[in-house]
């Protein structure tokens, strides 16, 4: 009898804890393109790679995985036109040094980027933005789900064409020396909700408090 009561009490405690523990943040990558893409993920310094940094994703499929429980920041992009030839993996856009799993390595321009900063601030904020700093290869949308706040979905659409680059590297990489160019202004006019050069407005980062899921949708 005592053992049964103990087991019942333990089950009630476990159920209470499970109900009180909020579900973790889920990251979902969706491929709405009419072709296979190879999503890639690069963490910022000091953060772990997610999903080994890259994978194949067939047309009209998605892949979901848990985000880290602590603070994480980094970027997502899609590689296109990838293939194995002569024993080497390579992609037409977004290639990360001939790797299927980028494992912390960045991608080659042009590539549309989604930038994230997860689990920060007093209200468990997740910030996100779409960037054309490294050019454009395919349309991308970022959407939060079940969070609090007024963060909108963000998109870099088809009107954004092929490529935008600015030379904001080395000693030119500062707000004083890295300014908008005629090329970045063209893309800013077409896609006002995106970063188009390295020191574009920080207000373009939007945040959502405690979202249940963040979706990165390609060809939305």
Automatic annotation (TrEMBL):
Which species does the entry assign this protein to?
Sesamum calycinum
Question: Is the keyword Disulfide bond assigned to this protein?
Answer: yes
KW Signal (keyword) present: yes
Taxonomy of the source species: Eukaryota, Viridiplantae, Streptophyta, Embryophyta, Tracheophyta
Query: Per its record, how is this protein called by name?
Result: Osmotin-like protein
SS bonds (residue pairs): 33-219, 82-91, 96-102, 168-178
Q: Which InterPro entries match?
A: Osmotin/thaumatin-like_sf (IPR037176), Thaumatin (IPR001938), Thaumatin_CS (IPR017949)
Q: Which UniProt keywords apply?
A: Disulfide bond, Signal
Q: Which SUPFAM superfamilies match?
A: Osmotin, thaumatin-like protein
What superkingdom heads the lineage?
Eukaryota
Pfam family of the protein (one): Thaumatin
Q: Where is the signal peptide?
A: 1-20
Q: What PANTHER family does the entry give? A: OS03G0233200 PROTEIN (PTHR31048)
